[in-house]
# Entry
Amino acid sequence: MPNDQSKLHQHPDDQTPDVALIRNQNVTHEYSDVNIRGIIQFVIGLTVGFALVGLIVYGTFKYLYSRELRGEIRLTPIERTTADKLPPEPRLQLAPGHAEHPLEEMKDFHASQTGELNSYGWAQRSSGIIHLPIDSAKAMLLRQTIPSRTIDSITLQNEQGVLIPSSMSAGRSLEWRDH
# Structure
């Protein structure tokens, strides 16, 4: 006959016996499971480490802040050798050693170009070539008759091919093309 007491302590869905009724009053804690002393030492060490790192960072910030207030700036060896030297020419505008602001340079350049466009002077004195104000040059050009090409002179055809404006000259010169 099977033991009826063992059937009472088994779960109906499981083959594992129910051990909830087993109690041992002599064993309350197993020392092999968790090392409480090691955990406490680790937490204390971690706290001390955080405190030391915090003090070091705080001290560093205080030192750097007081040095900044005193204006005590030490240059590195590379900064000391290059502090006096300017970069080679040409320098960028607004770079150290550049005398004039770029906007002032642009205004001066524009004024010089406008002055040359609106004045008389020698372009090449040895060749006798002069420059005159742009408005006067336009008026003189309009008074002259300027020869123009006719369509017949551009599209000459013969047995060699067709004479058409060159693609590289923007139509200023002509070239022969085969049919």
Q: What stands out?
A: The mean pLDDT is 78. Residues 7 and 15 are 10 Å apart (CA to CA).
